[in-house]
Amino acid sequence: MELSNLIAKDLLSIRAVFFRPEEPFTWASGIKSPVYCDNRLTLTDVAVRTDVEQGLASLVKENYPDVEVLMGTSTAGIAHAAIVGHLMGLPMGYVRSGAKDHGRQNQIEGKLLPGQKVVVVEDLISTGGSVIEVVNVLREAGAEVLGVVSIFTYGMQKGLTRLAEAKIKNCSLTNFDVIAQVAADEGYIAPEDVARLLAFRNNPSDESWIGGTK
Questions:
Q1: Which of 209, 70, 49, 81 shows the shortest CA–CA distance to 145?
Q2: pLDDT digits over 128-168, tens only?
């Protein structure tokens, strides 16, 4: 089985990714979404966690063989960076969303030397904003950021465009298209819902997919 399909099945089985096209969730931005995603749930299922961490390690080895340090995003990427770092025998740290207001006022936690080759570990990517901020902090500290690995990406055009403009490569274990198709194949959603889900992904602000009009 392809890794992307395996991870998609894993995420669906523990409801880390949960589709509800008939009763959309509302994001903080107000956008109606047919999908709920909480990859933190992967940490509490040993079998799924093993698939995810071994998968992330494989992505790093295949795409960034020169990596010297892993850096997790705060907070969801920290545990994954730690586990993958352990599997690969690599040092790890993480980047805070803002500098501490006490002590050494660090934003980067863990030892990072200028010029070191870094891979960022993220749990999911939607519009790309948070991971771009992390990469920028690392670059400002003198790191050579090789790219990002993540568990899941929506593949939203806004995110793809922003990552490309920031010259950031991302490799994900699975993506929205794969999970939507696996969800239909496995009976989590109706086959006709796949087109509605992709319509949402292609234009999240257009709610015409709600009610089955697409």
A1: 70
A2: 999 999 999 999 999 999 999 999 999 999 999 999 999 99
